[in-house]
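Many introductory courses stop at the sequence. We go one step further.
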Amino acid sequence: MHGCLFVLMLFYVVGFWVYRTVTQPHRTLMVAACKGDAATVMRLLASGSDPRYRDEKGRSAVQMAAGHGRTQTVLLLLRHNADSTEALIGAIRSRRPALVRAILKARPDALRTWEYPVPPVEEAASYGDSDTVAAVRALVAASAPGRPVRK
């Protein structure tokens, strides 16, 4: 009986250690991105942190950085293959038209790869900021003709 209890406790401790070891760098990346600490973000990305990691609430580092207006951190994460839709959603929801423009300048295909059920102009309109709506509308209109973009 005591042997089984010991084995169960050992599995619990080892499992918890593995969980913390695997998720801690990603959580640290999210905190650094939220704070706009580009040096820490760069170090964590170089050491293998996943820029597309989502926390238990479904948020990504690029969405957190965009939501806090951390333009340099957002662009750094996008250069390391972060999701441009997540960046745009964060910028739109936090009413940051300059960041929307910066994201679309860094990733001109971002509107074509939009992976969200609500189209970008509707998403911007639902947050009630006329500057952001105007920025998104202008960027949708300026998209290359002949290529489908969700309005």
